[in-house]
Write a structure and sequence with these properties.
- With 394 residues, the protein is an alpha+beta fold.
- The chain has 13 helices and 21 strands.
- The chain folds into 2 domains: 241 residues, FAD/NAD(P)-binding domain (3-Layer(bba) Sandwich); 136 residues, Translation factors (Elongation Factor Tu (Ef-tu), domain 3), CATH 2.40.30.10.
- Strands 1, 2, 7, 8, 9, 10 and 20 form a 7-stranded mixed sheet that branches.
- Strand 5 and strand 6 form a beta hairpin.
- The chain is elongated.
């Protein structure tokens, strides 16, 4: 099998890899993209329930988690949500804002993948699937990459392999192996944007409420997210929980404000004045899901008419509603995690070119790096921005 020569070899045909490839191709570079999976953009296809939450109009560096919070600033400033929206509109893809700046396709995430592939084709980029990497070496003329499709010789090698989240889509730690091979440090990885599991008392008391959802404010380690919570058979999920999961670790305190936007103490006192004969579970069921209100009064709150709740009990009940303490035992893990926290140490990578500070011509982009976004389109914006930054220089 004849060797393939190119200027740029991108390993990984996901969001970051395809953006990097099309950007480099538009500059006249000879670009090859390879992926071990059987089709491109698998994570794009399943994201947002098949509608792809492709960016967030409110993206700022503050929406990302990294050991170096400054690393993401340069790329995000140079390729903004408006830049990607312009590309989406040029391809006549209809979209809508769901909430909090989150943009979704009206029809299907397949449109985003097709757009990226079409841009690659137009830029002369060749994309190969079912092409696993077997060996990478660096020679005087660049990188020698042995694959299932033969040998590739490339001046620049871009690692866009993603993280460990959702292994059923083909996620592996291969990018971290490449980083270590070339002397890079990889910061400890863990699942992020992931449901939390409960055990013991909390799990026993809440498990049969599976399917109950409500708005909450979830708080841990100085961070707070107001959105919905979903009780599951194994624990808790929903956007508020996925968000806080990136800041919580086993053993950390986790609190839920069950009446977000309301003063629980003020509300309870109002109920005591206005509806003294009503049972607490009855008035609670008007502001919380009925089954949850009943369960709270069975185990945590006074199950009696509001007028019978004395001052200490009232203060205690208000504190519980405003800061319900949950002891989570762990997470659902990479199986359902939307991102991988940790990854290739950004201290050894240029924030403007994404080139390794150790090995000229080697670049890392997207989720393989120690940069993870919040829930809501931020991780895609990081993929577009980091891919564009590297694609502009390789």
């Amino acid at each position: 099998m004849a060797a393939t020569r190119c200027d740029v070899l991108v390993v990984g045909a996901g969001a970051a890899g395809l953006m990097c490839a099309l950007t480099a191709g538009q500059r006249g570079r000879v670009v090859q993209v390879i992926d071990h999976a059987n089709k491109v953009g698998k994570k794009i296809l399943m994201s947002g329930g098949g509608r792809c939450n492709f960016t967030n109009t409110g993206t700022t560096p503050a929406n990302f988690v990294s050991a170096n919070p400054h690393f993401c600033k340069s790329a995000l400033a140079r390729y903004t949500p408006a830049d990607f929206i312009e590309l989406v509109e040029r391809h006549r893809i209809a979209y809508h804002e769901k909430e909090l700046g989150q943009l979704f396709c009206d029809v299907s995430s397949k449109q985003i993948v097709k757009m990226l592939v079409d841009e690659c084709v137009e830029a002369g980029v060749q994309v190969r699937t079912d092409c696993a990497v077997q060996r990478i070496e660096r020679g005087s003329d660049g990188f020698h990459v042995q694959t299932a499709h033969g040998m590739f010789f490339a001046a620049s090698l871009v690692v866009a392999t993603g993280g460990l989240s959702i292994p059923s889509l083909g996620a592996t730690g291969f990018g971290y192996e490449i980083a270590r091979q070339f002397g890079h440090d990889v910061l400890p990885t863990r699942a992020g944007l992931v449901p939390l599991t409960l055990s013991g008392t909390h799990q026993q008391r809440l498990a049969d409420l599976s399917g109950v959802a409500l708005p909450v404010e979830a708080r841990s380690n100085g961070m707070a997210f107001r959105n919905s919570l979903l009780i599951t058979h194994r624990g808790i999920s929903g956007p508020a929980i996925l968000q806080i999961s990136s800041f919580w670790q086993p053993g950390d305190a986790l609190e839920l404000d069950l009446l977000p936007g309301q003063d629980a103490d003020h509300w309870l006192r109002a109920m005591k004045r206005e509806r003294p004969d009503a049972a607490l579970r009855t008035v609670l069921a008007e502001v919380l899901p009925k089954r949850l209100a009943q369960r709270l009064c069975e185990h945590w709150l006074p199950d009696r008419p509001v007028k019978q709740i004395d001052e200490p009990q009232l203060r205690q009940a208000a504190a519980l509603l405003a800061g319900f303490p949950l002891v989570a035992s762990g997470t659902e893990g990479y199986r359902t995690a939307e991102v991988t926290l940790g990854g290739v140490d950004t201290a050894q990578v240029s924030s403007s070119t994404f080139e390794s500070r150790k090995v000229p011509g080697l670049h890392f982009i997207g989720e393989v790096l120690d940069v993870s976004g919040w829930l809501g389109g931020y991780n895609f914006q990081w993929a577009w921005a980091s891919g564009h930054a590297a694609g502009s220089v390789v």
